[in-house]
Design brief:
Strand order of the largest sheet: 1-2-5
Distance between the termini: 86 Å
Number of strands: 5
Shape: elongated
Radius of gyration: 27 Å
Oligomer: single chain
């Protein structure tokens, strides 16, 4: 097939295809960035709360803390990390130098069109030597 001046053989109907792909890629990246901005701080707070629970469990028997003292310390740390938790959601078992701490809480993320609920179950225990 011979093409006259100004003819673009094989490209009919393909005008703007690259623009659509680029716009779609930018849209996907924007959604991923938006989701990251909403979710990553929540995950970081959970990680720091988990670390605080592990430290509390590790030193609870050394500091001779009662289960009520441990629960109060964990609740205080939760407030420091903006963790939405109630005292009833924190479970502490402490017997003979062995301490187990667990907590259950949920965070709802508003994603404009969707409400995403993240459930967390941090826990820690110390093993007596």
């Amino acid at each position: 097939m011979k093409c006259n001046k100004g003819c673009s053989a094989g490209l009919k109907g393909e005008h703007g295809g690259a623009r659509l792909k680029a716009a779609l890629a930018v849209g996907i990246l924007a959604v991923m960035a938006f989701t990251g901005v909403k979710v990553i701080p929540i995950l970081i707070n959970n990680f720091q709360f988990q670390d605080a629970i592990e430290s509390t469990a590790r030193f609870a028997s050394v500091n001779r803390q009662t289960p009520a003292d441990i629960q109060a310390a964990v609740l205080k740390e939760a407030k420091n990390e903006d963790i939405p938790i109630q005292p009833a959601d924190i479970h502490v078992k402490g017997e003979g130098g062995h301490v187990e701490i667990s907590a259950d809480y949920s965070v709802t993320v508003n994603m404009v069109l969707y409400q995403w609920t993240l459930n967390f179950h941090p826990s820690a225990k110390n093993n007596a030597l």
